[in-house]
């Protein structure tokens, strides 16, 4: 017999949607991953330019066109994660 208990998460464990730094980290990782996947297998990303899957295409374009700024944002995020 299993007893289901309602567990309340600790104050420090929040979803990435409610923690701004985690949200930025998820967005940066998505941009970097989509850019890499588009460089390796362009047909995989390019075939979905509209709809929900179009977010991956747009993320790849941001990574390609703004790569110096994305790289600086990744370095800044790494420094803030190490400093914590």
Q: Pairing-aware structural class of the strands and helices?
A: mainly alpha
Q: Compute the CA-based radius of gyration.
A: 17 Å
Shape: globular
**Percent range for β-strand residues:** under 5%
**How many runs of DSSP E, i.e. beta strands?**
0
* Uncertain residue ranges: none
Number of helices: 4
* Proportion in helices: 55-70%
Major sheet, described briefly?
none
Give the termini distance in whole angstroms: 43 Å
Order of helices and strands: HHHH
Mean pLDDT: 81
Function: Involved in the early part of the secretory pathway.
Family: Belongs to the KISH family.
Keywords: Golgi apparatus, Membrane, Signal, Transmembrane, Transmembrane helix
Protein name: Protein kish
Textual characterization of the structure:
By secondary structure, the chain is an all-alpha fold. The chain contains four helices and no strands. It has helices at 20-40, 42-46, 54-65, 67-83. α1 (20-40) crosses α4. The N and C termini lie far apart (43 Å).
Summarize the structure.
With 84 residues, the protein is mostly helical. The protein has helices at residues 20-40, 42-46, 54-65, 67-83.
Helix and strand topology:
Layout: H1 20-40, H2 42-46, H3 54-65, H4 67-83
Helix pairs in contact: 1-3, 1-4
List keywords for this structure.
transmembrane helix; 65% helix; 84 residues; mainly alpha
């Amino acid at each position: 017999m299993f007893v289901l208990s309602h567990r309340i998460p600790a104050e420090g464990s929040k979803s990435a949607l409610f923690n701004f730094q985690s949200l930025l980290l998820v967005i940066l990782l998505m941009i970097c991953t989509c850019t890499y996947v588009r460089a390796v297998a362009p047909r995989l990303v390019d075939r979905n330019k509209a709809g929900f899957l179009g977010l991956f295409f747009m993320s790849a374009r941001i990574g390609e066109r703004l790569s110096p700024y994305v790289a600086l944002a990744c370095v800044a995020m790494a420094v803030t994660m190490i400093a914590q």
